[in-house]
Amino acid sequence: MSCIRILLSDDQTIIRDGLRALLDSHNDIKVIGEAGNGCEAYKQTQELKPDVVLMDIRMPEMDGVEATRLIKKDFPMTVVIMLTTFDDDDYIIKAMTYGASGYLLKDIGSEKLIEAIRDSLRGNIILPGRIAAKITSHLTQNVAPAVTVSDFTDRETEIIRLLTQGKSNKEIADTLYLTIGTVKNYISQIYMKIDVNDRANAVLFFKKLGF
Q1: Can you give the pTM of this predicted structure?
Q2: Cα 7 to Cα 88: distance, rounded to the nearest angstrom
Q3: Per CATH, is 144-209 categorized as 1.20.140.10?
Q4: According to the model, what pLDDT value does residue 146 have?
């Protein structure tokens, strides 16, 4: 298994130190950089190309929500997971709308954090806790799909159904006897049809559409 490269973004050094110590204790995870605010997080993402950014929401200069917007716009394959001390609906909903793969409360247990990171790279949406359903509702209630199920080919429909089940590109390829490159091409075409550029919003879109 290739190493998961992590960027930590939090304005509190003690939080970053604790996360680094925890994450670096796992052989398949490596912390490659740290940022103390949203501006630094964007610059570090540009320079280091991490697989995952653990992003604090409330930071000086630029908050995590705006940093997420910029990162997902310019580096759509980078997974962003929001870290927060609060069940702060407005911030979390905005971040998810911009393409974040979910949020975690900072008091999460160590094993659950590791599991969430791995799940996010499989395309799963991380929405733990009591407000998960509420956030999903907010994200989907204003979606008015301009396309219908009939707008997708049979093959695209098969891939969409596997996407909504949380399958990774490799799992989709193995299930449908395709190459990973072919699956990526199909997914890119699917994203273009619904005007999204990340897996989390695509899954939410298709669940709203009835998949």
Answers
A1: 0.68
A2: 22
A3: no
A4: 64
